């Protein structure tokens, strides 16, 4: 009996059993992919786990293929999988460790049934091989996962930046910039940059900034708004304000920030009657 082949064959014969036992013992009360109740999603999760076992068993072949190369495609697929991206990283690390325990038990079972053929040195070698392989897989997976998560975050930030300054062209040379929600320093800087670029692209000469959707205003917000208007004027644009609610007007005056040299309209409708 060839011991190396036997270990490999023994593991290969248990791949689906490993997957079913893993899913049976899985903590399904967590958020993300492990807590899904969708049958198709559960089937996919099991198949992904089974694919892992099929690949992992290959590491116990006599020629012992490279870990990173063997798992390269699987790791990339998992790191980009949307269901796994919605799953906390610590939960996934925990499942890698649970799988490690499964393989330790599997090796112990094999050694117990082949006690006369397996030496302590061989068992320790398999145990070390198992630990090192999973360590490399976990590190590589984490690196890929974090890289893809960071890329998604950058994409979201770019989308937020674009939505922060939704310039709407009203007619030739005239556009509307409606501001909604909080207007903090960082967002004001994004709005300033995006507004300059979009107004230039659209050849806007007159811009109406509507702040009826701004939730609240303080001195810093008012200062940023005034800086935005001043910056736009420096490049030759006419800038008007609309939607200045009485409470915002009072707050601005109390804070010592007044738009005395800016034409203000109570609503977009009234501003458009004049501008168009």
**Name of the CATH class of the largest domain:** Mainly Alpha
Strand order of the largest sheet: 1-2-3-4-5
Mean pLDDT: 85
What distance separates the N and C termini? 91 Å
Strand content: 5-15%
Strand runs, count: 5
Number of domains: 2
CATH topology of the largest domain: Globin-like
Radius of gyration: 31 Å
Low-confidence stretches: 1-5
Helix coverage percent: 55-70%
- Largest sheet report: 5 strands, mixed
Order of helices and strands: HHHHHHHEEHEHEHEH
Number of helices: 11
CATH superfamily of the largest domain: Globins
User: How does the overall form come out from the CA principal axes?
Assistant: rod-shaped
Assign the CATH architecture of the largest domain. Answer: Orthogonal Bundle
Q: How does the helix and strand content classify structurally?
A: alpha/beta
Q: In oligomeric terms, what are we looking at?
A: single chain
Question: What would the keywords be for this entry?
Answer:
about 280 residues; alpha/beta; Globin-like; Transcription Regulator spoIIAA; 2 domains; 5-stranded mixed beta sheet; 11 helices; 5 strands; about 65% helix; rod-shaped; disordered N terminus
